[in-house]
Amino acid sequence: MTIEVAKKLTERLEQNMDDFMSDILTYDKKTIISMLPSISEMNTAYELIAAADFEDETAEYLLQFKNPIEIVADEFVAENDYADGYDFLDFIYDFVQDENDENLDVYPLVSELDTDTTAICEAFGLDMESLDKLLDTITEIIELLVVYYGACPKE
């Protein structure tokens, strides 16, 4: 895998795990204890993906999903394929080659805006909350302009 693709995948994995762990910390102790199997699956999936040496095409396929760790946790670890000795790379290649591409319907994809939000925040020195407020304001302005000028701006 090229350095650029590896960096993107690593950043996505780290963000996914950070989000997952932050979410867990919002729950009470009993809920967290009941989530231990899911936490273990997510950690195992993270470690498997992070250690794998994918081809660029495979890594890019995983990068089109918002949370590649969740996919591996659900489809590989939770299905006991991991415990049964099924090779992780074989699983990933089968998953990528899935003719029906059901994966695209089941797991959320990254939108173009999602892929650029980190860069936007860094470029303008904003945090995500400020960026969301800014985008809401821009949307409101556009809606007002559409009402004022009609559906299409006059040339």
Quick one: biggest sheet?
A: none
Instruction: Determine the number of helices (DSSP H or I, runs of at least 4 residues).
Output: 9
Please tell me the total number of domains.
2
Instruction: List low-confidence stretches.
Output: none
Helix/strand order, N-terminal first: HHHHHHHHH
Description of the structure:
This protein has 155 residues and is an all-alpha fold. It folds into two domains: 3-106, no CATH class; 112-149. Helix content is 72%, strand content 0%. The protein contains nine helices and no strands. It has helices spanning 3-24, 29-34, 36-51, 56-63, 68-77, 88-97, 103-106, 112-124, 128-149. Helix 1 (3-24) packs antiparallel against helix 3 and helix 3 packs across helix 5. The radius of gyration is 20 Å and the shape is globular. The model has no long low-confidence stretch (mean pLDDT 77).
Summarize the structure.
The protein has 155 residues and is mostly helical. It is 72% helix and 0% strand. It has 2 domains: 3-106, no CATH class; 112-149.
Features:
155 residues, 9 helices, 2 domains, mainly alpha
Please write out the topology.
Elements: H1 3-24, H2 29-34, H3 36-51, H4 56-63, H5 68-77, H6 88-97, H7 103-106, H8 112-124, H9 128-149
